Amino acid sequence: KIPVILDVDTGVDDAVAIMYALTCEELDILGISTVAGNQTLDKTTRNTLAVLEYLGRPEVPVARGAAGPFCRPLHTAPQVHGENGLGNVQLPEPVKQPEAGDALTCLRRWIEGSAQPVTIIAVGPLTNIALLLKAYPHLKARIERIAIMGGGAFRGNASPAAEFNIYVDPEAARMVFKAGIPMIMCGLDVTMKAYATGEDIDAFAALGTKAGKFCADIFRFYYDFHMSGVRGKLPGCAVHDAVTVMALTHPELMQGQDAYVEVDIDGEHTWGCTASDFRERNCSGEKNARVILDIDREAFIQQLLKAAASFS
Ligand code: BDR
Ligand code: CA
Q1: CB 131 within 8 A of CB 36
Q2: What sign does the dihedral 50-157-21-275 (CA atoms) show?
Q3: 240 in ligand 1 pocket by Cβ < 6 Å?
Q4: Which one of the listed residues 75, 81, 226, 240 is annotated catalytic?
Q5: Ligand 1 atom with minimal separation from the 11 CA
Q6: Tens digits of per-residue pLDDT, 245-267?
Q7: Residues paired with residue 64 on neighbouring β-strands, in sequence order
Q8: To test the ligand 1 pocket, which listed residue (6, 9, 193) has its Cβ within 8 A of the most ligand atoms?
């Protein structure tokens, strides 16, 4: 099994990624840390706990992380994920509280307690991960790789050049890309191809399971946002964060290329951009990331449906 830590800003697609990860026999989930992004930290933490309880997995430890980026005001995305962050679907109030102590202490404990080096799956702004690497640089040797939903070699969404997770905390992202740990970057290049159509959403509902109904319900608001055309014409809603989990469990469904990725933090029009150099000759730095560019969309959705079918 791959020991993993999930770092999330739960969020509609984060919730689907958590649901999927919980069903993966290939993964040993050591814990989940939360960060502000799609919504405030209070809401993303509550949502994470609520999703785990709703899906019958309250034993998975949750650590409450950073309430905002390093040195910028927090941007949230209620227009995408709803005021509550879960497409305004109300789950029962979670009974369990986050772990005692701060997230960095929890993350350190989970990483040091693992017999094997840990893979971090980070699908929100990279604030927690940057803080962790800054506070405990010795942990770098215990981190096998960091797989992120973030960035885009060829496009942005929060701005023309920047994807939301990087846009929220570009300084943190820059530190993480420079940490010397192998990265898997599942950015908009691939995640915009990993969309769920209206028919797919109906298929989740038709499963008749708790998770199927939940996914269909939270997708509705999110789907309407994608269909509104604010970010261009799309055939469905992008299930971004689940791609990052599946990049570990089903790499055969994806294609990518190695690149040297730098995060721009101060370009007038390009701050938050993940400048990706794929060149073999004259590459501007050492390749630090596998950039995922393509996915078998139908197989991706089938895997998510299979996962949602397995919760009674
Ligand atoms: C990313 O930003 C958030 O809205 C999603 O949860 C995803 O992690 C997509 O840009
Ligand atoms: Ca997210």
Answers
A1: no
A2: negative
A3: yes
A4: 240
A5: 6
A6: 999 999 999 999 999 999 999 99
A7: 34
A8: 9
**In this predicted model, what pLDDT tens digit does every residue of 57-84 receive, in sequence order?**
999 999 999 999 989 999 999 999 999 9
How far apart CA 252 and CA 300 sit, in angstroms, is: 11
122 lines ligand 1 (CB under 6 A): no
Pocket test for ligand 1, best of 13, 74, 191, 245 (most atoms within 8 A of CB): 13
The predicted structure's pLDDT at residue 221: 95
Q: What are phi and psi of 63, to 5 degrees?
A: -110, 135
User: Alpha-carbon distance 270 to 264, whole Å?
Assistant: 7
The DSSP bridge partners found for residue 312 are none
Specify whether 240 is catalytic.
yes
